[in-house]
Amino acid sequence: MDPFRKLLKKGNLLLGTLISLASPEIAEIMADAGFDWLFIDIEHSPMDVMDAQHILQAIGGRLAGIIRVPLNDEIWIKKSLDIGASGVMIPLVLTAEDARRAVRYCKYPPQGMRSIGVGRAHHYGETLQQTINTANEETAVIIQIEHITAVENIDAILAVEGIDAILVGPYDLSASMGLNGKVMDPQVQRSIERVRNACLQKKMPLGIFTASVEQAREYANRGFSLIAVSTDTLMLIEAAHGIVKSVRA
What we know:
By secondary structure, this protein is of the alpha/beta class.
């Protein structure tokens, strides 16, 4: 399988879903369902890095595991990459300097300052040198645009070398505009469209999260190629309520 970063650069439609439960079994089910990547969320969920490693081990390279770290922090990023994530997603990037810092943390020298340690990504030392040699080319650096300040700075952010994709966080974006959760509000949609236009102009792969299948289709038709649809918990809620409602009917 081509590295996830290479697929991103090709502009392939990459369909994922968000994982918030520390369940390798759920991750296996999602892999069997045919998703291209898992959005492993250790920002908002109670999961830690070891939980994320168990998920990566469960999916066994059948699809990409992208870890959203809790913040733009060297320790979280290097731990996530050392356990074998295909890439990391950096939340709440507001400025070009935030983006440059994220890239530095993700890349080994001379492109960055990622420290060299032994972990699952290096087959626990067996492929250490080989992994170091190829990691900068194979590791995806995904920046989240989820604040109106980031929207205003989008052109400067896109000029930062080493970013592989932008992923819009519509819910936090709406909150930063005083429109908590109102992601379909025209003001929020105009801000998303501003990011979309800037990314398309720069040929930057563009992604978004949505809970709606219909919206996911619409975003795909509008040029979004990295799409996360729904979450593990939302799927369980929908299925459980549907079963109860159908049987009681």
